[in-house]
Specification:
The chain is an alpha/beta fold and 386 residues long. The protein is built from 14 helices and 13 strands. It has two domains: 207 residues, Glycogen Phosphorylase B (Rossmann fold); 163 residues, 3-Layer(aba) Sandwich (Rossmann fold). 39% of the residues are buried.
């Protein structure tokens, strides 16, 4: 029995990386593979339990917490010597602790002897023994364009470019950019949708905008979304529509005020049943600055819910068929976002047509299709090692 090992930074963050690893791991298990999800740092074992999939934590005493070189150097630019020294000492201590954990993970991998390793974050590559790098693939869970923001990520991947078997990108567009940047052995495997739904939402009757997201303003830009919807409701006669917000995090003061003063915008808190939420909705919203391959858009597709989104990176046009399963707005054009959203809200025929297109397109992302891409990749690794 061949063994697949997923390696991730931490197990206590139940988010996109975890849901993808969990979904693929369960599917591989059904295919006859032995599967393990290995976390470098602190985990909530109850949350990380999957039937018959082993979940292991190397260091369950420490949470994932790194300080970067730029955080150490930044106080110097502000002539804050005390903070520079403090951050420097903190940086060295954390590096020492992390090196110990990397040594532990190397020992664990050698004892476990996996046939294939899927590295979910760039940092864990340091914890993979040299003799296992040829059977390791790194899966990039963010946008390739996001390297402009996180240059440390890019530098590390370049360092491992000639050592690991290859790179898995979440979109064909990202794969092409990786090739141009000099990365070798590139593959595209889409994220799977994590549930199936036989039903399709009654989008023209539900009259509900929805978002299921982490509540924050840097990447997800929830503040911008709230402001746009508030303006649409105030400028148009849409008293039969509501906007439901699901997720965990903190709103800024302006968003809190808008939600408090607009009865049509409702914060629902966390949901553990996105399928049930989406089947009662009409249109999914996305205002992210960047995405790897949005799980919330895939889940909306499965329920027949069109998405209106800004262009959030390479994956946007592979997740949303512009003008068929939703609208993609270029250049953060808020006026056009409002116009397209309003058009979809007022045109029931278009909304229902988009909904049917969504349901049909969602089949592309079923786990049964995605897991075959992974097994094909494993076969390539085996062939290379013969």
């Amino acid at each position: 029995m061949k063994k697949v090992m997923f390696i991730q930074n931490e197990g206590n963050v139940v988010g996109g990386v975890w849901y993808v690893n969990k979904t693929v791991a369960s599917a591989l298990l059904k295919k006859g593979y032995e599967v393990e999800i290995l976390s470098l740092r602190n985990a909530n074992v109850k949350k990380l339990s999957i039937d018959n999939v082993k979940c292991t934590i190397i260091n369950d005493k420490k949470s994932w917490d790194l300080i970067r070189k730029r955080d150490v150097i930044l106080p110097l630019k502000k002539i804050n010597i005390f903070k520079f020294i403090k951050n420097g000492i903190c940086y060295i201590n954390k590096k020492i602790l992390m090196k110990k954990d990397y040594n532990k993970i190397k020992k664990y991998i050698r004892e476990s002897r996996p046939d294939y390793i899927i590295a979910s974050q760039y940092q864990v590559l340091y914890g993979i023994p040299d003799e296992y790098l040829s059977k390791t693939v790194y899966e990039h869970h963010s946008s390739f364009e996001n390297f402009d923001i996180y240059k440390d990520n890019y530098k590390v991947l370049k360092r491992f470019n000639n050592k690991i078997f290859g790179f898995v990108w979440l979109s064909k567009a990202a794969l092409e950019k990786a090739k141009k940047a000099g990365f070798k052995n590139n593959f595209c495997i889409y994220n799977p949708v994590r549930f199936k739904a036989k039903e399709k939402a009654c989008v023209s009757l539900n009259k509900k905008l929805v978002v299921i997201s982490r509540i924050e303003n840097y990447q997800k830009r929830i503040n911008l979304m709230v402001k746009i919807v508030d303006q649409i409701f105030k400028e148009n006669d849409l008293s039969d529509w509501t906007f439901d917000i699901y997720g965990v995090g903190n709103f800024d003061l302006e968003s809190e005020s808008i939600i408090k003063n607009n009865d049509q915008i409702i914060y629902k808190g966390k949901t553990d049943n996105p399928k049930n939420v989406l089947l009662k909705a009409s249109i999914n919203l996305n205002t992210s600055l960047f995405e790897g391959f949005s799980l919330s858009i895939l889940e909306a597709l499965m329920c027949g819910i069109p998405t209106v989104t800004f262009n959030h990176g390479e994956a946007a046009y592979e997740e949303v068929l512009n003008g068929k399963t939703g609208f993609i707005i270029e250049d953060d054009n808020i006026s056009e976002f409002k116009d397209k959203l309003l058009l979809l809200m007022k045109d029931n025929k278009m909304l229902e047509d988009f909904s049917r297109n969504c349901k049909e397109y969602s089949n592309k992302f079923l786990i049964d299709n995605i897991v075959n891409e992974w097994t094909n990749l494993f076969a390539k690794i085996d062939k290379e090692r013969l």
